[in-house]
């Protein structure tokens, strides 16, 4: 039962993050600006805050994916180290961005995605 629940959450999270990642440039920009405005108490410079939020989003969504995937793998009797395979998607997610209007490929963002996966794997391996 727990395996099925985590598998469902993992799939839903993957679909959600992929949807967010593949919004066109106008929509993703608007979404991050609105979030920055709501969190304006964190920094008075809206452009800096917006940039930091966009960078952190990569790390957070991939860390959550890695935690969910790692737990799902453990519950199925597989090694959570297989989560390292998500690195392929960390690159592919960025590689498909040029197909979306107003988006581009960024090696820096691939690195942020991989950082999120590593953080998530560390959490799963040492906490769960």
Summarize the structure.
The chain is an all-alpha fold and 128 residues long. The protein has helices spanning 2-21, 25-38, 46-75, 86-95, 107-127. The mean pLDDT is 93.
Element-level helix/strand string: HHHHH
Structural class: mainly alpha
How many beta-strand segments? 0
* Tally of helical runs: 5
Radius of gyration: 16 Å
Overall residue-averaged pLDDT value: 93
Helix content: over 70%
Label the overall shape.
globular
Flag low-confidence runs: none
Strand content: under 5%
- Report the end-to-end length measured between terminal Cα atoms: 17 Å
Largest sheet features: none
Structural description of this entry:
With 128 residues, the chain is mostly helical. It has helices spanning 2-21, 25-38, 46-75, 86-95, 107-127. It starts with a helix and ends with a helix.
Keywords:
mainly alpha, 5 helices, globular
Q: Which SSEs are present, and which pair or pack?
A:
Blueprint: H1 2-21, H2 25-38, H3 46-75, H4 86-95, H5 107-127
